[in-house]
Amino acid sequence: MHNKIGVVLRKVRKSRSMSMKQIVDKLEGYDQTSLSRFERGMQGATPDRIAAICDALDVSVGMVYNELDRMNGIELKPLSIKDLATDDDSPDAKDVTLSCVDFVTAPYLDFISLPAGENLSMDELKTTETAELPTAALTQAQVKLENVLCAKIRDDSLDPVIPAGAMVAINAGDIARGTGAFGLVHGKVYAVNHLGMVRFARVYGLPGGGYRLKFYNKEYPEEKHTEEDVVIIGRVFWYSSVI
């Protein structure tokens, strides 16, 4: 998947009449040789690297995945959570045909009425409002649609990586949800319930329990909280800055 995305990004770069040097000059720890191999489909790239290249090209990650779907001749057929829901014990659950659509819809996370210190069910976390996100984002992250919540970042604590106003998709079925630090991928961005308030941060488990929250924006100091004060909602696996 990532190798093909390189081909899409090369098309975008060419359409903007930008050189590879102009792109890598905006990236940290990436050279023209690596970019060239990525663009030719000879090597992959991490989601963070793809997002950084998209940012350098001034194009959203969602638009790139959508173009990839079009290149693959994927049919436009938006479906809902109900359409794609699968039973956990189904042998085909992991292979649900998410790749046959451009967009899917998922509910927004409830920012308003979360009680503090509780591990809530999906029904308790979601609202009746929905948002669209590219199917390829779920396919790449191997996330089931019934576990997805959407939200908009309301502050600049994750700038410049995830800007204020960006739409994010959260895997609320993540193994770390409600299990303390067990299964936590340290340093990844999570949505958390902090005393009844939804926040987004890079989360680390602390020895003996609790969490350390860090932010990409250096103006926000890191924080330490107990597991009673902070409850994991789920891991952020996709974002788009197109509002």
Short synopsis of the structure:
By secondary structure, the chain is α+β, with helices and mostly antiparallel strands.
- Backbone shape: globular
pLDDT averaged residue by residue: 76
**Tally of individual domains:** 2
Order of helices and strands: HHHHHHEHEHEEEEEEE
CATH first level of the largest domain: Mainly Beta
Q: Helical element count? A: 8
Strand content: 15-25%
Question: What is the terminal separation in angstroms?
Answer: 25 Å
Total beta strands = 9
The strands making up the biggest β-sheet line up spatially as: 3-4-9-5-6-7-8
What is Rg? Answer: 18 Å
CATH superfamily of the largest domain: Umud Fragment, subunit A
State the CATH topology of the largest domain.
Umud Fragment, subunit A
The helix content, as a percent range, equals 25-40%
> Any guess at the CATH architecture of the largest domain?
Ribbon
Unreliable runs? 74-101, 176-182
Structural class: alpha+beta
- Major sheet: 7 strands, antiparallel
